[in-house]
User: Fold these one by one.
Assistant:
Number 1:
Amino acid sequence: MEFVEEVLQRPPLVLGVDPRPGLHGPEPLEHIRRYTLGLMEALAGKICAVKFQTAFFEALGPAGFGLMHELVVGARVLSLPVIVDAKRGDIGSTAEAYARAYLEAYPGSALTVNPYLGHDALEPFLRTAARSGGAVFVLVKTSNPGSSLFQDLPLADGRRLYQAVADHLVQEAERQRVGAWSRLGAVVGATYPAQVWELRERLPWSLFLLPGLGAQGGQAIRGPGLLNTASRALYYPGGRPDLEGALHQAEAYLSELAPSL
Ligand SMILES: O=c1ccn([C@@H]2O[C@H](COP(=O)(O)O)[C@@H](O)[C@H]2O)c(=O)[nH]1
């Protein structure tokens, strides 16, 4: 089954894994490994995917990269879809290599990508995702307070830059459809609910990855194809590793997002 089909069969909440070694005792890598495997198992019925932020694993050195690989495999063993949040983007020939590194290496998984280099730079990701049954989430309107500096710039035709990015993506999103939804998704901050609804109109077939829930002040947003994403708030509820607390937090989010579950 493709990434898109798998996530849509599950509750619309994404667990973000952004491990901070300082919170994991004297043997942090081993503790992160055990805690994350336990957390994914405990939350398996309450989430649609696990998002791994590569930056936190890269910061752990060469062993950190191996750990991320082990945890991605662990997620797939639990039948959990995986999103690699690496925000890649480069000239086409290098984008090919990034696509191999994440989409081909982890079939059926998704990758976040940066559209700044243009359409030719996105194509290798889209081609590889189509081959591997994966998906791509393009940064459209990011969750951070400074995202307006460039993304909200007004263009000569009156649109904002992020709106022009969305309008550019819509045709490709239609080409990349898997049934009613598309392999080409968008990242839209949960911290900008008005833009979430406005972009939903512009990109009707795209799943939206909505980071910013919890720690960045975003609220749960319920709607078709909206994948609410929390890292710190779910991985470290109360500011530290806590399996029970994470389970309660996931249930609290789900009571807002999918009250029937
Ligand atoms: O617009 C964006 C795109 C990606 N992120 C990533 O999501 C998580 C958010 O972490 P929290 O602890 O839930 O704040 C993190 O990995 C970011 O790199 C984002 O926040 N906003």
Note: The chain has eleven helices and nine strands.
Number 2:
Amino acid sequence: MKIFSSEQLYEADKITTEKQEIASIELMERAATQIFSWLHERMQGAQVPIHIFCGIGNNGGDGLAVGRLLIESGYNVTMYVVNCSDKRSKNFLINYDRVKNVTKSWPLLMTSEEDFPDIADEDIIIDAIFGIGLNRCPGGWVKKLIQYLNGKKAFKLAIDIPSGLYANEPMDDVEAVLKANHTLTFQSPKMAFFLPETGVFVPYFEVLNIGLDEEFILSQEPLAQLIEKPEAQRFYKQRQKYDHKGTYGHALIVAGSYGKIGAAFLSAKSVLRAGAGLVSCFIPECGYAIIQSSLPEAMVITDKEDDLITDIKINFTPSAIGIGMGIGTNKETVAALEKLLKETKSPLVIDADGLNCLAENKSLLKLLPKNTVLTPHLGELERLVGKWKNDYDRIKKTKSFAKKYGAVMVVKGANTMTVFEDKIYINTTGNPGMATAGSGDVLTGLITGLLSQGYDPLLASVFAVYLHGSAGNIASQEISFEAVMASDIVDRIGLAFIELFAQDPMPLSEPKE
Ligand SMILES: NC(=O)C1=CN([C@@H]2O[C@H](COP(=O)(O)OP(=O)(O)OC[C@H]3O[C@@H](n4cnc5c(N)ncnc54)[C@H](O)[C@@H]3O)[C@@H](O)[C@H]2O)[C@@H](O)CC1
Ligand SMILES: Nc1ncnc2c1ncn2[C@@H]1O[C@H](COP(=O)(O)OP(=O)(O)O)[C@@H](O)[C@H]1O
Ligand SMILES: [K+]
């Protein structure tokens, strides 16, 4: 699924009404009907009080239209107009009149704190105050209203976007955003849903297709591409009957130091689970017996030093190299990394201390072979690109870093974001159970394993991130978020491959047109 900007959505809206020869009020009715159906399917006529807070723009118009449809079906609805300005939109006014025609009374007008209504814990709040047309920070009593609603336990459903958030810009005031329980958004998820600062206001969302012009949508370069199951399925390369282990490459993992040999174990195991034909681990001498006995499928080459990596000597050309997990940032190790960067022709993934070595020795960055994959978490990213003002500034900095060094940047976290050239891919799998020691090592192994099988660096990264999150999801479903360890993730990579092509259970009801 593609993520579009608010500007693109307004344009799509305009082109759709022109091409389909419909009035924009009809598009609003489509949108409102979808929201009504969503609610009706779940509420089945229940007389739970529903409070709809409508702004004076088209988001408010949506709210009024939803309210009217609910009332016509016998629901217990109260509508409020959050009268923050006189500039009511045309479609707001049409729906305002329609409400009057159906209910024989006007919605309640709110102009100050005195108008805030009582809301019980069991009630439902619908937020139609501001949509993607928010153009300044909600202030005064409107901000207080948002805070008042946030203080209520009632279930909060936001239309299009929680009020106070911009679709694709940083928010102004964290205190002036509605904390929605669920958001029903039109046509395309918004960028704000996937970034840590703003995404907390959108714990769950669904996209409603309101039939905007397909041709226009397809012609647009999105802000980002969301990676869900259908996209991931297309990445998968089928194995052929006469393939042999040579077909899938001989990968190299360079990892570990005294006390951190586990990083080599986890990443090398992950390389094999990803499907590489062979894996060799280059580790300090002290890890030899550990890896040989814990992972007999892997071959082991050791450094001349007992507890550090100082000189990476190998006698084969790896099909891919994953380097950096638990290696430390010792001077000799940095020198070993520098030599490898200068000499290798293999596709490369650099993680963890490998990234810290680069950050502490920025002159090494210009040695990065083109298309090298870097997998920083936010701490490591900051050491590479410097401090950022907000999530959008971080994206900008990551993009320019990726361009400058020709790197594929895999920025890890919830909704891991892969950045390459001008493109952004946002992952949808994974869960907080994966915030555990070594889960990043497993990801590096997975990327290395896919590179080894001939996936190109960008594809290997985006696909590995998806599979890694999916393995984490399977693990947490089995044993809880808390109990997941990196070993559990690595051992479910196989199930993640199987899940990729598993049929989803039948939906409860047929999708609506
Ligand atoms: N294709 C689409 O994208 C469709 C969009 N629709 C709805 O239209 C919405 C966008 O509507 P609008 O462009 O009218 O914008 P909004 O309804 O989001 O709000 C903008 C209005 O509020 C005012 N305003 C903005 N920030 C304010 C603030 N901080 N304090 C006080 N007033 C403020 C603006 O001046 C403007 O009058 C979408 O979010 C969606 O809900 C739907 O009706 C259907 C189609
Ligand atoms: N809240 C979360 N939701 C989804 N994925 C997460 C979450 N927290 C961590 N992860 C994933 O877990 C991995 C953690 O990697 P990293 O921070 O490098 O850990 P380590 O250094 O311990 O291996 C990343 O792939 C990250 O995307
Ligand atoms: K809203």
Note: Residues 457-479 form the longest helix (23 residues).
